[in-house]
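Final report, closing paragraph on structural work. Over the funding period we assembled a curated collection of sequence-structure pairs, and we close with a single example.
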Amino acid sequence: ALERAQAAWLRDSGKLSQEIHEAKRDFSIEMDGETRGVARRLADGLEAQQKLADELERKLAVAKTELGSVLERLDSTARAQQQELRDAEGRLMRQVNDVQTIQGGRTQR
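Its predicted structure, as stored:
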């Protein structure tokens, strides 16, 4: 009886396995067309996103280059202004010394 039960169980499990396999195959056939469509849409979307990312990366590189140029000009302008301030300070100090010398000469008379 045990052997018959095992044989029946093997037959039933084989039959169930075959039915499951057929159902999977049928589902696969039905989904294959849909899957291809979804895969194509995903690929198109990914391609568009990659193009956008590439464009943004290009714009970022251009912006970095332009920023570098602006920073160089700003640095150059700041150095020039610092030099102008030092020159003006030197002229002012000479003028102050000249005025003090002139005033010193007048008080001695």
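The chain has a mean pLDDT of 86. The radius of gyration is 44 Å. We thank the funder for supporting this effort.
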